[in-house]
């Protein structure tokens, strides 16, 4: 017994001697907080053809945003003016490298910077539109999904134009561009005009399910970021096929029941009324009698408040309220029909997840149409989507009328 | 000294219940959603799990019936009564070898998972080795201690799984689970087959029978013990499908781990719940491995009639187990290894007890006269 | 193993001693002077040795008292003994009998007005009595000795227990005087079944030891086992109850105390009423309670005095404290040097920033700070009381602050160490607190090598150890493993008093019911 104890102790001591393989002190990590991936611009030869070793050369341009921890605590928000910092005092550092695969570039970058990129705190992945259009989304995402270090919650976005520009915007209220965009995207959801954040896990499941899907689109304006609309990807080869603007995104969110709140503006009797949506529920029904012309009925119930009223609209009478309700419903129907029209006719991509609905509720029909839902026979485009909106005004606010 | 009855070398039925449950819950929870989803491609996998579970529970009942016929006797002893001594010795030897392989597999799996989720560069050999040292420390004590440890660990294990489920309630979408009932019987049966593998482990009772002091309700408590993993598996499967959809469940290595990755601790006290989950999961794998190791030792000891000391067995078996555990070259080989052990397990835990029970009943053999 | 070696050595010593003692005649002579000379020779006429020879009453019979100065109550000897013998016989108009034996009988039965009187026939008994503070009365012409109880040395008064003070609860603690201590116990349990079995322990120190239990509650096996183990004690000096504890405990390798010690009489009475056995030793205010389980390390007497919600909250807090005390520095190490992904992003960046100048890995940093802390604690105990506190505060604050300033450690580490230090003091049993401190270094090392994996493996090992450990035949991990659901009412939460109507099941008490049905009408 004694001997056993002794040998166990000796083994334990041995471990101390052999060292700690995975020990890596926190200050030695190069925390990557965001990544932007672009295509390398000059691409010789046809990309679709056989890839020789030469062409395998450089394909992606990867930009990592590193945290500079020393400046993170000391630096004031906005960066730039904290004194005494080693590298200009900015709490972040963008590094760019080119290569054939994300993995390889990451390794390459380790040689460039003194610290090895550490991806466990990555918060944002931005892809360039070019990359998305060429259908490299799935290749790029593979690295991020496969790497178990990656957190599922990292958000994915598609940038208009160059992705690395997104990481260079001037953050407001936050210390780093990535954190700024992160909180921005959380906030934008409340306006209803942008998609709720999509993370790596979601993209993974989109790719696996093989439906068309949407990813938030970020547009940089005057070095100040704003997330606008959505980017659509088709189901066949996961290429980006088009974009949706703000109001189209709102329409999409209505159907997929993702509107938390939104503000609608419309004219009533020549006066502007702002209607604040508090809650929107949608219910889809399908009539699958004829598979060549499946009829979807989307019923949307909206609750909301009257937010702003200009002019002399008196909110006292029931008739005025019901007029507001009717107008709002009309407005919402217009928005939704607009997006349905665009998606169904122009892009033929079922981003409304109507196919998924069929699978869940009308499995037999789905089996028949599944193969040619968005291609060939294109049952999706042939289907009819009828939108019915019902609006209820819950609160009119404290005042009935502002002016006499 | 004369010590208290409960403090002695006996265990009650609670230990049986929890021991069985803890032995069965192990690596299975992590992979089961994937294997079942692969077979059934839909939420209907729950039928597979229930079906497989019920089949196994039936056989567990058979085994419990067999051992309650022979109170305080282990496999070697009652097989000698039922058939004869040479056959009993051969059977016990095979059983011991199977259990030993089981230990090897379990240890390897611990190392693989820890390597995947907790380590990066630490060699698998080392991860496995320290785990093995702890297991040896456990089995160097009496068997009752190992059974009792389950009582200490079970609440933690149930807690972490339920926490995992509760934290995911917000992400659970009922519509993702639809449509129901459209999977063919052949697929469901195929799913059940996969499920059965995850329910093995209750055969430890063949030896722990010698320590059970209340023989009356062994059958009932064994079945209750088996019901715990069944419920857990159902819960985890439904949640994996409800949160991610079948497609993701089919295509991730450990779907349950994905569930853990999804969790966000309120208040952001710490992140990456999956690391915590896996850390705690080591505890379950430890209980399984240590019980299997303990049963191996008991089985070998029963053949040699306690002539050889327990520590001697440990001393000679440990290097062997370690070498076998380290022999699969990669994860795929480990999986195949595991599959073979599972087939062996079906033989030893389901058919052998059934056969023994039938013979015992025909011959009218009973323990204690 | 260790004990075996001890035993061997002890046997050897014993023989030596016996050889020496053989020179001295241990019989009592009839001649008083021979006796006095003999005793003087044995004790080597120490300076505190008192002998006084005088005649009984008006007769010619010589007698002598022998005692040790300082141990005896002088007034009592003067007033009750000498006065009564010299004058008492006369005033009572009693004849002094001719036979010395009769004189002694008469003195014992009629003259001496003290309650503790005993006749001894063996010199060893006489010597022991003298050395324990009694007075021996020799009468010329008889080989019997009258022993008069006259213990009366200076002792500390009943004081508030120093190591276990409570906000609510009795303020009196045990003292060094065993009579006071038994008094304190008896006063709280006026049950005729309260047993106080005395014996002497230590071959040379010959301390009084009292095994205390309530017959009819305690399981007889436990008393038998405690007595059996106490009988094995064969050591010349029992300095403190710690000596006994170490002798009778089950595993000397375990960091956990298997016998609880306390200064509080109320804790002892509550324990014996739960079916446990208490051991009191003369000369120390610390009583021992056996058997002990892991959960009882977390039970403070105050839990029962406060209302149950408060008691339960405090209990849970203590479990959390124990967890912190053992695992917090280890978790810090694991997170900072292995699993940085688990720290919330912003916190991770600030820790990284604050550690930028720290030249050591987290494990060294943590070990350094923990060592400093232990030093401070140790120094604080040694230093005179008023300075001790100052050093504690100054040392803690100044060293901590300076270490951060000097870039030796990171501020987060200081927070972790401070929380750990406070936590380890929240555990009511001092011995358990030390155990957790020891374990802490183990977990820190494991975390430094394997991160979280190391921590969980240490956790498993601690569990194995606890499950294996027994205290007087009772598994240390009761009531969890083996499970006694009934006893869970008094583990993490302390159920309302009325809900705990039975004594702990794991103690297998003879009389289980604690609370009667009470007034049926209410």
TrEMBL record, chain A:
<comment type="similarity">
    <text>Belongs to the GerABKC lipoprotein family.</text>
</comment>
<dbReference type="InterPro" id="IPR038501">
    <property type="entry name" value="Spore_GerAC_C_sf"/>
</dbReference>
<dbReference type="Pfam" id="PF25198">
    <property type="entry name" value="Spore_GerAC_N"/>
</dbReference>
<protein>
    <submittedName>
        <fullName>Ger(X)C family spore germination protein</fullName>
    </submittedName>
</protein>
<keyword id="KW-0732">Signal</keyword>
<keyword id="KW-0564">Palmitate</keyword>
<dbReference type="InterPro" id="IPR057336">
    <property type="entry name" value="GerAC_N"/>
</dbReference>
<dbReference type="Pfam" id="PF05504">
    <property type="entry name" value="Spore_GerAC"/>
</dbReference>
<feature type="domain" description="Spore germination GerAC-like C-terminal">
    <location>
        <begin position="229"/>
        <end position="397"/>
    </location>
</feature>
<keyword id="KW-0449">Lipoprotein</keyword>
<dbReference type="InterPro" id="IPR046953">
    <property type="entry name" value="Spore_GerAC-like_C"/>
</dbReference>
<dbReference type="GO" id="GO:0009847">
    <property type="term" value="P:spore germination"/>
</dbReference>
<dbReference type="InterPro" id="IPR008844">
    <property type="entry name" value="Spore_GerAC-like"/>
</dbReference>
<dbReference type="GO" id="GO:0016020">
    <property type="term" value="C:membrane"/>
</dbReference>
<feature type="domain" description="Spore germination protein N-terminal">
    <location>
        <begin position="22"/>
        <end position="219"/>
    </location>
</feature>
UniProtKB/TrEMBL annotation, chain B:
<dbReference type="GO" id="GO:0009847">
    <property type="term" value="P:spore germination"/>
</dbReference>
<feature type="transmembrane region" description="Helical">
    <location>
        <begin position="278"/>
        <end position="304"/>
    </location>
</feature>
<feature type="transmembrane region" description="Helical">
    <location>
        <begin position="122"/>
        <end position="139"/>
    </location>
</feature>
<keyword id="KW-0472">Membrane</keyword>
<keyword id="KW-0813">Transport</keyword>
<dbReference type="InterPro" id="IPR004761">
    <property type="entry name" value="Spore_GerAB"/>
</dbReference>
<keyword id="KW-1133">Transmembrane helix</keyword>
<comment type="similarity">
    <text>Belongs to the amino acid-polyamine-organocation (APC) superfamily. Spore germination protein (SGP) (TC 2.A.3.9) family.</text>
</comment>
<feature type="transmembrane region" description="Helical">
    <location>
        <begin position="195"/>
        <end position="211"/>
    </location>
</feature>
<feature type="transmembrane region" description="Helical">
    <location>
        <begin position="87"/>
        <end position="110"/>
    </location>
</feature>
<feature type="transmembrane region" description="Helical">
    <location>
        <begin position="311"/>
        <end position="328"/>
    </location>
</feature>
<feature type="transmembrane region" description="Helical">
    <location>
        <begin position="45"/>
        <end position="67"/>
    </location>
</feature>
<keyword id="KW-0812">Transmembrane</keyword>
<feature type="transmembrane region" description="Helical">
    <location>
        <begin position="151"/>
        <end position="172"/>
    </location>
</feature>
<feature type="transmembrane region" description="Helical">
    <location>
        <begin position="340"/>
        <end position="362"/>
    </location>
</feature>
UniProtKB/TrEMBL annotation, chain C:
<dbReference type="GO" id="GO:0009847">
    <property type="term" value="P:spore germination"/>
</dbReference>
<feature type="transmembrane region" description="Helical">
    <location>
        <begin position="443"/>
        <end position="462"/>
    </location>
</feature>
<protein>
    <submittedName>
        <fullName>Spore germination protein</fullName>
    </submittedName>
</protein>
<dbReference type="GO" id="GO:0005886">
    <property type="term" value="C:plasma membrane"/>
</dbReference>
<keyword id="KW-1133">Transmembrane helix</keyword>
<feature type="transmembrane region" description="Helical">
    <location>
        <begin position="388"/>
        <end position="408"/>
    </location>
</feature>
<comment type="similarity">
    <text>Belongs to the GerABKA family.</text>
</comment>
<dbReference type="InterPro" id="IPR050768">
    <property type="entry name" value="UPF0353/GerABKA_families"/>
</dbReference>
<keyword id="KW-0812">Transmembrane</keyword>
<feature type="transmembrane region" description="Helical">
    <location>
        <begin position="316"/>
        <end position="338"/>
    </location>
</feature>
<keyword id="KW-0472">Membrane</keyword>
<dbReference type="InterPro" id="IPR004995">
    <property type="entry name" value="Spore_Ger"/>
</dbReference>
<dbReference type="Pfam" id="PF03323">
    <property type="entry name" value="GerA"/>
</dbReference>
<feature type="transmembrane region" description="Helical">
    <location>
        <begin position="414"/>
        <end position="436"/>
    </location>
</feature>
């Amino acid at each position: 017994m004694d001997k056993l104890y002794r040998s166990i102790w000796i083994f334990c001591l041995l471990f101390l001697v052999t060292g700690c393989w995975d020990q890596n002190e926190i200050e030695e990590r190069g925390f990557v907080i965001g990544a932007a991936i672009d295509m390398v611009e000059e691409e010789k030869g046809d990309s679709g053809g056989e890839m020789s070793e030469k062409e395998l050369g450089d394909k992606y341009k990867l930009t990592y945003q590193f945290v500079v921890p020393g400046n993170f605590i000391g630096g004031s928000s906005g960066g730039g003016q904290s004194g005494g910092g080693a590298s200009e005092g900015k709490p972040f550092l963008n590094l760019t490298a080119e290569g054939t695969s994300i993995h390889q570039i990451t390794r390459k970058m380790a040689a460039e910077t003194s610290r090895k990129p550490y991806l466990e705190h990555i918060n944002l992945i931005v892809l360039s539109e070019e990359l998305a259009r060429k259908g490299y989304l799935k290749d790029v995402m593979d690295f991020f999904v496969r790497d178990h270090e990656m957190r599922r919650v990292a958000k994915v976005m598609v940038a208009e134009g160059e992705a690395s520009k997104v990481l260079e915007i001037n953050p407001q209220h936050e210390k780093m561009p990535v954190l700024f965009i992160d909180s921005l995207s959380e906030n934008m959801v409340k306006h209803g005009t942008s998609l709720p954040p999509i993370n790596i896990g979601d993209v993974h499941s989109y790719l696996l399910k093989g439906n068309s899907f949407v990813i938030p689109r970020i547009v940089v304006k005057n070095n100040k970021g704003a997330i606008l609309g959505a980017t659509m990807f088709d189901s066949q080869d996961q290429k980006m096929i088009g974009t949706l603007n703000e109001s189209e995104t709102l329409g999409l969110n209505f159907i997929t029941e993702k509107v938390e709140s939104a503000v609608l503006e419309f004219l009533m009797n020549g006066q502007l009324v702002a209607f604040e949506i508090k809650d929107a529920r949608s219910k889809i029904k399908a009539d699958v009698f004829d598979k060549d012309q499946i009829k979807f009925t989307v019923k949307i119930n909206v609750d909301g408040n009257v937010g702003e009223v200009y002019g002399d609209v008196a909110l006292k009478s029931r008739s005025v309220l019901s007029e507001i309700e009717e107008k709002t419903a009309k407005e919402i129907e217009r928005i939704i029909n607009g997006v349905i029209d665009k998606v169904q006719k122009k892009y033929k991509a079922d981003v409304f997840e109507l196919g998924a609905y069929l699978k869940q509720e009308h499995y037999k029909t789905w089996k028949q149409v599944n193969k040619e839902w968005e291609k060939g026979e294109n049952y999706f485009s042939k289907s009819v989507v009828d939108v019915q909106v019902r609006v209820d005004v819950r609160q009119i606010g404290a005042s009935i009328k502002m002016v006499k | 000294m004369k010590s208290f009855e409960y403090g002695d070398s006996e265990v009650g039925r609670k230990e049986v219940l929890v021991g069985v449950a803890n032995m069965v819950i192990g690596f299975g929870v992590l992979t089961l959603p994937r294997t079942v989803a692969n077979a059934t491609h839909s939420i209907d996998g729950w039928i597979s799990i229930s079906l497989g579970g019920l089949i196994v529970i039936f056989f567990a009942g058979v085994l419990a019936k067999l051992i309650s016929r022979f109170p305080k006797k282990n496999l070697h002893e009652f097989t000698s009564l039922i058939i004869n001594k040479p056959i009993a010795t051969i059977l016990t030897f095979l059983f011991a070898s199977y259990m030993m392989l089981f230990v090897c597999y379990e240890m390897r799996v611990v190392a693989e998972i820890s390597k995947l989720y907790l380590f990066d560069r630490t060699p698998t050999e080392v991860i496995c080795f320290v785990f093995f040292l702890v297991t040896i420390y456990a089995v160097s004590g009496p068997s009752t201690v190992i059974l009792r440890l389950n009582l200490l660990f079970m609440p933690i294990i149930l807690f972490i799984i339920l926490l995992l489920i509760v934290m995911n309630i917000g992400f659970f979408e009922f519509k993702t689970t639809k449509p129901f009932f459209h999977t063919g019987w052949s697929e469901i049966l195929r799913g059940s087959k996969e499920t059965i593998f995850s329910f093995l482990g209750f055969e430890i009772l063949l030896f722990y029978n010698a320590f059970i002091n209340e023989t009356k309700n062994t059958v009932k408590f064994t079945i209750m013990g088996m019901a715990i993993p069944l419920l857990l598996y159902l819960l985890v499967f439904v949640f994996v499908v409800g949160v991610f959809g079948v497609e993701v469940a089919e295509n991730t290595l450990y779907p349950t781990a994905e569930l853990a990755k999804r969790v966000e601790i309120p208040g952001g006290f710490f992140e990456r719940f999956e690391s915590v989950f896996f850390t705690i999961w080591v505890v379950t794998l430890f209980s399984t491995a240590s019980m299997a190791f303990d049963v191996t030792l008991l089985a070998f000891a029963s053949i040699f009639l306690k002539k050889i000391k327990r520590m001697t067995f440990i001393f000679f078996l440990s290097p062997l187990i370690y070498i076998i555990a380290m022999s699969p070259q990669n994860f795929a080989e480990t999986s195949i290894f595991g599959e073979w052990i599972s087939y062996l397990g079906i033989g030893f835990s389901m058919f052998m007890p059934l056969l023994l029970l039938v013979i015992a009943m025909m011959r009218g053999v009973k323990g204690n006269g | 193993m260790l004990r075996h070696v001890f035993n061997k050595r002890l046997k050897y010593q014993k023989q030596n001693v016996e050889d020496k003692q053989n020179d001295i005649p241990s019989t009592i002579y009839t001649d008083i002077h021979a006796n006095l000379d003999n005793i003087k020779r044995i004790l080597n006429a120490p300076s505190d040795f008192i002998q006084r020879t005088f005649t009984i009453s008006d007769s010619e019979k010589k007698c002598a008292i022998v005692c040790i100065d300082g141990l005896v109550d002088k007034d009592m000897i003067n007033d009750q003994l000498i006065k009564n013998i010299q004058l008492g016989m006369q005033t009572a108009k009693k004849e002094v009998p001719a036979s010395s034996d009769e004189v002694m009988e008469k003195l014992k039965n009629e003259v001496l007005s003290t309650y503790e009187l005993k006749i001894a026939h063996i010199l060893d008994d006489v010597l022991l009595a003298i050395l324990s503070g009694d007075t021996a009365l020799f009468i010329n012409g008889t080989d019997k000795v009258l022993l008069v109880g006259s213990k009366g040395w200076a002792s500390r008064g009943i004081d508030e227990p120093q190591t276990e003070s409570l906000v609510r609860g009795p303020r009196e603690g045990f003292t060094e005087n065993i009579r006071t201590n038994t008094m304190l116990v008896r006063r709280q349990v006026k049950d005729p079944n309260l047993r106080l079995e005395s014996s002497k322990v230590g071959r040379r120190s010959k301390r009084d030891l009292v095994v205390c239990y309530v017959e009819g509650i305690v399981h007889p096996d436990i008393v038998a086992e405690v007595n059996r183990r106490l009988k094995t004690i064969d050591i010349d000096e029992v300095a403190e109850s710690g000596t006994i504890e170490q002798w009778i405990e089950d595993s000397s390798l375990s960091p956990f105390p298997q016998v609880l010690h306390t200064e509080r009489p109320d804790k002892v009475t509550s324990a014996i009423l739960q079916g446990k056995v208490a051991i009191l030793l003369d000369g120390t205010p610390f009583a021992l309670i056996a058997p002990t389980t892991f959960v009882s390390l977390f039970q403070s007497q105050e839990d029962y005095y406060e209302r149950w919600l408060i008691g339960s909250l405090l209990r849970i807090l203590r479990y959390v404290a124990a967890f912190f005390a053992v695992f917090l520095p280890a978790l810090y190490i694991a997170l900072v040097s292995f699993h940085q992904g688990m720290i919330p992003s912003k916190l991770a960046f600030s820790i990284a920033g604050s550690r930028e100048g720290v030249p050591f890995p987290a494990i060294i940093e943590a070990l350094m700070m923990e060592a400093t802390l232990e030093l401070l604690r140790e120094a604080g105990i040694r230093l005179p009381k008023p300075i001790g506190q100052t050093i504690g505060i100054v040392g803690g604050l100044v060293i901590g602050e300076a270490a951060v300033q000097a870039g030796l450690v990171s501020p987060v580490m200081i927070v972790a160490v401070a929380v750990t230090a406070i936590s380890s003091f929240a555990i009511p049993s001092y011995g358990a607190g030390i155990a957790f401190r020891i374990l802490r270094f183990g977990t820190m090392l494991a975390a430094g090598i394997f991160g979280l994996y190391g921590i969980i493996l240490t956790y498993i090992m601690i569990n194995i150890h606890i499950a294996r450990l027994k205290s007087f035949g009772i598994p240390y991990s009761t009531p969890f493993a083996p499970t006694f659901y009934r006893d869970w009412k008094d583990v993490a939460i302390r159920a309302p008093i009325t809900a705990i109507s039975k004594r702990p099941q794991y103690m297998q008490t003879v009389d289980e019911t604690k609370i009667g049905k009470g007034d049926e009408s209410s």
